[in-house]
Write a structure and sequence with these properties.
The protein has 162 residues and is mostly helical. The chain has 9 helices and no strands. Helix 1 packs across helix 8 and helix 7 runs antiparallel to helix 8. It holds the Pfam family DUF2919. This is DUF2919 domain-containing protein.
């Protein structure tokens, strides 16, 4: 942990969130973002969901796979100094292990994309290939990043009342 000095800290004394971590959450939760975009679309003639998913079962499978990454995303949103020291301790102990659900989600997502490629008789799909490359990048990032090890072991200290 001594590798990363004060230049890596935010104003609360915790390690800054890497930009690649935000991109990781974006890639793993992409089916939810597509769903939200489709729900917010005001044009009934434009079917956004059919652009990204072949069938409803593909959509529901993608939502189920992305649900694995929802818990780390929610706990990440709570990663800020808290007034209650007990809840901060509890969240810090949970946060320490949130790398594993993200890795599981990436592996499951990559397996699902590979299954889809095999199911389409290995016919090349640029959209599917881009997704596979992105998910593979996310998986390698989650497995190899040294800074993420430090980031997941850090939690902001509780706010002291004066």
């Amino acid at each position: 942990m001594n590798r990363y000095g004060p230049e890596y800290w935010d104003k609360h004394g915790a390690y800054r969130t890497p930009v690649a971590f935000h991109l990781t959450l974006l890639v793993l939760l992409r089916s939810y973002f597509i769903w939200i975009m489709a729900a917010l679309s005001r044009r009934p003639d434009l079917d956004i969901m059919s652009l990204f998913f072949k069938s409803k079962s593909d959509f529901f499978t993608a939502i189920a796979i992305a649900a694995i990454a929802l818990l780390p995303a929610v706990i990440f949103c709570l990663r800020r100094p808290q007034e209650n020291a007990e809840s901060a301790k509890r969240l810090a102990s949970i946060w320490r292990f949130m790398r594993w659900p993200l890795i599981l989600c990436a592996i499951t997502d990559l397996s699902w994309l590979t299954y889809q490629a095999a199911h389409s008789h290995y016919q090349f799909s640029f959209f599917l290939a881009c997704q596979m490359v992105l998910v593979l990048w996310v998986l390698l990032y989650l497995l190899k990043s040294r800074y993420l090890s430090v980031f997941f072991n850090d939690w902001p200290d509780p706010i002291e009342k004066k």
